[in-house]
Amino acid sequence: MKRYVVFILAMVFISCKCEVKDNAKFLFQPTNNCEIRNSETAGDTLKVDSKREYVFAVDNKESGIHSLGYQNSETSEDIGPRGITILNGNIYIVDTWHRCLKKVSIETGEIIISQPLKIKQKSLLGDITVFNNNLFLIRDDSVCQIFDSNLIEVKQLLISQKYRSEPKAIFWQTTDSLLLHLLAEDEEQLGNLQIPIHLVSINKNGDWINERKLISSNENFSYWKRDGKDYIKGKYFNYYKQDGRYFFRNNLGVLPLPDEIPSMLRYPVNNIDFDKSNLVYFNIDQGLFKLTIIKFH
Hints:
- The protein is mainly β.
- Helix content is 1%, strand content 45%.
């Protein structure tokens, strides 16, 4: 049921060593070529204009303008960057460990703003998305924060239904509203064949519309699928491998990738986003945060 776009972490800190647990599971993998249908490879072929990589330090002591945080855990999921999105030619990254947001220029890779958030010490940040030209950030204390493109807070939205203690939410967009699919705190008590779904609707003004809880009995239910297709934040995509190469498909066509998008198994995270001309993703390797920007047409 749960599929996340994720990356493999192989990193060593001065104070702690990160090792892959034996019981860790891959939460996301590219589709094998034998599973690709003709309709999934048809369409216009997109071309890569450039691929650029920018590297930032991993620093847990302070939320610097040039660094992000990451904390290894031996008893639960690691704490690291939780989300990424694109708005008006800039990239926004959720620095969960430092409880701040980073604004990065998509042209230069420079971190323009590192904005600390005034939240509870134990609150964790979740994914981020764009709706109505604003940024929507989900937190694990039942709050959705809304920011403008300069990371100035517009408002906070309290979600009345408490969900799980971890900030796991899936964003969907319609023409007039933003939908949050929240994982219920009682999810594991229902068994594999009963899936609780919290749906929170938010209008373009950032106002709470309604909230309801559904129970799905479909064992093949996925928060990321509609009509058998995968989506990121309401946008159709398909990441797959065919004849030894990797491809990324969206509603514009198929993009042959220069390399594989790194996968991760240490904690669930949306580490990828795209718009009509950019594909961006991040990973952490050898104690460094790496941001990749692929421009295409």
